[in-house]
Structure to design on (265 residues):
């Protein structure tokens, strides 16, 4: 039986990415020592590379193709949504107190929240645009004459899931270091990814039957993802000035995501 309900498909796609975050967080039960800086840089770079490639092939190009089909200037929703997505993440970055793994200084407004809570908030910010992207891709694949196929949506979910695995570990390990038990570190690390199904399904609900909103939301998700990449992932991946691990990670992540998207799209 073929599933054509966009909500069910979005739930399946984002449920997979959430599961990968949880599996990554579960490595806290296997790893006894802190993750090496080189490996952490490589994982962060890999996530950045996947998100850059996904923003172009899975979001911006389909956004322009959708706009063309609707008779709208292709640059308008692609550029406008991209800017709005970046501004949205900037607003969240300023409004939500959060602490990035490896950092001693919290960002956002002053807060009495625990460091562990702010660590979870930091990763949650990353996951909002990822959930939107996967949910929208699966929803778009169900429309007639869609520019995004189901195979391309699956490729995007796999790519995001692959980079979510080390991301789950990158949050659970610092939480354990901050004094959480292994069980709590796993729970918080896993729950940091629950926002992806929420964001994905909510975005599909917002689109509903309003086809004209689709190109704007696709580019919105792209802008939000690129904001995360430039503001956080790439700088954090290059904290060690004498290592190229972050750069290698970006190149490998971009290459894998690009090949999957082009081959399956």
């Amino acid at each position: 039986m073929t599933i054509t309900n966009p909500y069910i498909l979005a739930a399946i796609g984002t449920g997979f990415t959430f599961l990968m975050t949880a599996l990554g967080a579960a490595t806290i039960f296997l790893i006894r020592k802190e993750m090496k800086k080189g490996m952490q840089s490589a994982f962060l770079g890999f996530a950045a590379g996947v998100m850059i490639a996904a923003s172009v092939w899975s979001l911006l190009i389909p956004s322009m193709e959708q706009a063309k089909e609707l008779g709208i200037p292709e640059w308008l929703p692609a550029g406008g949504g991209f800017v709005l997505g970046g501004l949205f993440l900037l607003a969240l970055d300023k409004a939500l107190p959060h602490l990035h793994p490896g950092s001693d200084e919290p960002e956002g407004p002053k807060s009495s929240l625990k460091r562990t809570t702010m660590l979870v908030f930091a990763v949650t910010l990353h996951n909002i645009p990822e959930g939107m992207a996967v949910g929208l891709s699966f929803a778009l694949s169900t429309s007639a004459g869609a520019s995004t196929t189901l195979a391309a949506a699956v490729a995007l979910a796999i790519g995001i899931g692959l980079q979510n695995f080390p991301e789950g570990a990158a949050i659970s390990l610092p939480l354990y270091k901050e004094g959480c038990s292994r069980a709590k570190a796993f729970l918080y690390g896993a729950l940091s990814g629950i926002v992806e199904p929420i964001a994905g399904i909510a975005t599909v609900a917002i689109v509903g039957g309003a086809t004209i909103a689709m190109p704007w939301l696709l580019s919105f998700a792209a802008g939000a993802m690129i904001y995360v990449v430039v503001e956080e992932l790439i700088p954090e991946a290059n904290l060690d000035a004498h290592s190229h691990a972050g750069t290698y990670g970006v190149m490998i992540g971009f290459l894998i995501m690009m090949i999957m998207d082009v081959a399956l799209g």
